Amino acid sequence: MTYQAFYRVYRPQSFREMSGQAHVKKTLQNALQADHTTHAYLFSGPRGTGKTSTAKIFAKALNCEHSPVAEPCNECATCKSITENAHPDVIEFDAASNSRVEEIREIIEKVRFAPASARFKVYIIDEVHMLSTSAFNALLKTLEEPPAHAKFILATTEPHKIPATIISRCQRFDFKRLSSQDIVDRMKVVLDDIGRGYEEQALKVISQAAAGGMRDALSMLDQVVSFSDEDVKLEDALFVTGSIGQDVFYQLVEHIKNKNVADVLGLLEQLMDDGKDSVRLSEDLITFFRDLLLIQTAPDLGDLLELASNEDKFIQLANEFSLDTLYGYIDILSKTQQEMRFSLHSKVYLETALLKMLQSGKPVVMQNQAAPTVEIPDLSALQMKVEQLENLVRNLQVSGVQGQSAPTPQKKRPKTTSSFKSPNGRVTEILKVATKSDIQGIKENWMTAMQQLSKSHEALLADSEPVAASQDAFVLKFKHEILCRMAAENSDLLQHFTQTLAGLTGKRYEAVFIPEEDWNHVRNEFVRKYKANSDNSSSVADNSGNEVDEPVQSLIDIEQVEDADTIISEAEKLFGKDFVNIEE
Questions:
Q1: Other CB atoms closer than 10 Å to residue 312's CB: what's the count?
Q2: Which residues belong to any copy of the AAA+ ATPase domain (predicted)?
Q3: Phi and psi at residue 510, to the nearest 5°
């Protein structure tokens, strides 16, 4: 006899053999036993959850020679012929390949005829949402008032595509995804029946890959059995399903905890070379961090773990992260997963997500469960508090101190000086060779570059603005001196931001940071000096053909950009951004 796939051989033939869907089984069995079945049913739910199998079992129970019964006997001639898809009164109809109104009319014409040998004519219409509008309209009246001997069972994975007029005439049952334990238990029955040994963890891997669908799980199990030599082992299941073992996730999260950028990206590249899917990998990472959360918060619920286990190394790893850090990792991966579904460069999104996780707050090492959790303060919140303190001190100096008379003269405190030394000389050198095209290129890509930064880095550059650029460097003006100093001292920000900007502009620029007050002073001095000495400088031709001083020419470029930005902003204020079209 020709070999048949597991999902066909081990298809349930009675309600007793069905996995899960207890709410559906109980309702249908009670109706069968009381002989109170209605004329139309709608079975909806994800693929592989038992909709068509339930419809066939229900058809057998309706027409069983011992009816009314809660379970078909599977021994009488009627039950056997329905099981073999040979009974003339149980008609299966595939709406996906027969969606036109002509096929539905054929059913309508034949439904009025009495059944050949069974009690009821049962029409099972699979993928009913694929029917055309005219086909639904033709079916509507028959579905509302069918003959007493006719029963309709509609099955679909997309109930929202079915007209409300059809749904309102059916008794609806929503099939749920099967639990991992239900799928594992069914696979054990199959393997015991064929005499194959197995590892429990291998069945869990297959169950997770099936995502709640029994048919997918049995298909993958069939493939793993064909691949493995003897028993079903974990490595065989990982290879066939394309899943990743828990030890690999342990290594990856260890590298993230230790901030090893090279090891994280290297391991990701190795997984990609092995043919792993980046979207699937992001899903598995979310599941792994969920398991770590579960180990921390509910260690007694070890049966709910999917990728991690209750081994000591996983318990220790889970306790080395704070809950907020794990929540943050899951949030980053969830947002990235949504973006990856609509991109052809999903690997880049996953790499970016891992870098964000590496640059987020350091994990909190907990020596034991009783130790308090030390939270890493948010950098942007610290910056806001510093600015508030500066404003408070400034206000006190201006208003509060002047109106108070001290009883005894106090020694005047020396004025504090900033520890940040502005690179005035370097800024002047950039102004000498600054060009309009370079500053325009940086400004056009500025917002895109900012969006690719981490929140802490973006907060540092929130009040900054590029004001001048040459072919190899650009000047970044800061409104607050403290933010300028913090940005200049942040080596990670300098490296990551320049790389990001280089990828967008095609040029690698050196970033030169300067506070706004110092920038105004340097720029004014540059204007005064080079306009006064323009007669003694080398000359170049401007846009109109006149010879001008080369530094002054670069200054003209800068002023043109600033004037253009002013004109654009004024136009947007007058007419609105939607009505302003900028053309070169």
A1: 8
A2: 37-179
A3: -85, 130
Cα Rg of the chain (Å, integer): 36
What is the CATH topology of the domain spanning 424-579?
GMP Synthetase; Chain A, domain 3 (3.30.300)
Q: In this structure, what token pair is assigned to residue 219?
A: 């298909």
Could you read off the pLDDT of 429-460 as tens digits, one per residue? 888 888 888 888 888 888 888 888 877 777 77
Question: Is 152:108 a contact under the CB 8 Å cutoff?
Answer: no
Residue span(s) of the chain under CATH 1.10.8.60 come to 180-241
> Top-level CATH class of 180-241?
mainly alpha
Nearest in space to 190 (alpha carbons), one of 203, 178, 180, 179: 203
Measure the CA–CA gap between 291 and 303, rounded to whole angstroms: 11
Instruction: Give the sheet arrangement for strand 171-174, strand by strand.
Output: 90-94, 121-126, 150-156, 40-44, 171-174
The CATH classification number of 6-174 equals 3.40.50.300
Q: The tokens of 226 are what?
A: 């064909």
Distances (CA, A) of 196 to 81, 208, 557, 583: 31, 21, 78, 72
Average pLDDT over residues 356-360: 84
**Is the per-residue pLDDT at 401 higher than 50?**
no
Cα separation, 230 vs 224, in Å, equals: 10
Produce one character per residue of 25-48: b if its CB has 16 or more CB atoms within 10 Å, e if not: beebbebbeeeebebbbbbbbeeb
CA–CA separation, 192 and 576 (whole Å): 72
Answer whether 308's CB lies under 8 Å from 201's CB. Answer: no
Q: Are β-strands 539-541 and 547-549 bridged in parallel, bridged antiparallel, or unpaired?
A: antiparallel
- What is the per-residue pLDDT across 321-354, written as a single tens digit (0 to 9) for each? 888 888 999 999 998 888 887 777 888 888 888 8
b/e per residue 203-230 (b: at least 16 CB within 10 A): bbbbbbbbbbbbbbbbbbbbbbbeebee
Task: Give me the pLDDT at residue 375, please.
Answer: 46
Q: Where are the alpha helices (DSSP H) in 112-150?
A: 133-144
Neighbours of 396 (CB within 10 A): 11
